[in-house]
Amino acid sequence: MSSQQQSAKAKRRSSRIIRAAAPCTAGIAVIVLVAGAVYQYVCSRRDSQRYPPPGRLVDIGGYSLHLHCMGAGGITVVFDSGLSDDSLAWYKVQPAIAKRARACTYDRGGLGWSDPSPLPRTSRVMATELHTLCNKRMWIARMSSWVILLAE
Predict the structure, then answer these.
(1) I want to staple 60 with a disulfide (CB 3.0 to 4.6 A). Which of 4, 66, 116, 132 is the partner?
(2) What is the 3-state secondary structure (H, E, C) of the chain?
(3) What does the pLDDT look like over 98-137, one tens digit per residue?
(4) Quick one: fold of 56-151?
């Protein structure tokens, strides 16, 4: 047998092995993806029961944002987390500010304890959501005349 024939035979053998292994590899990938999705679902459900929101969920028109306020005073400080952070980013700062003012953190739609927002995540939409949250009657009654927005 010539070296060209041996090379062609080896290529056919490799091709057969790859064709036989492809369905197994695809099956394993599907199993891993499904297992990951089930794990995420189960852990998310467990976490929501273990760690309830420290504040309250406020309906802003079909979905709710998480709002957590503490302290009292003549000034209300609203903490707005940056990028994909939730209100827990302020867990050390909020109690310190709450000693002298009303300190409120909130989670943007889809982050932390807030419901996912049906709207696109643009600056305008997020500002409108915060404005709607601030205008809720139950929160306005406790807000002071001075409001400071502290954002990162």
Answers:
(1) 132
(2) CCHHHHHHHHHHHHHHHHHHHHHHHHHHHHHHHHHHHHHHHHHHHHHHHHCCCCCEEEECCCCEEEEEEECCCCEEEEEECCCCCCHHHHCCHHHHHHCCCEEEEECCCCCCCCCCCCCCCCHHHHHHHHHHHHCCHHHHCCCCCEEEEEEC
(3) 999 999 999 999 999 999 999 999 999 999 999 899 888 6
(4) Rossmann fold (3.40.50)
Q: Which amino acid makes up residue 121?
A: R
- List, for residues 5-53, the tens digit of each pLDDT value: 666 666 677 777 777 777 888 888 889 999 999 999 898 888 888 988 9
SS3 state at 103? strand
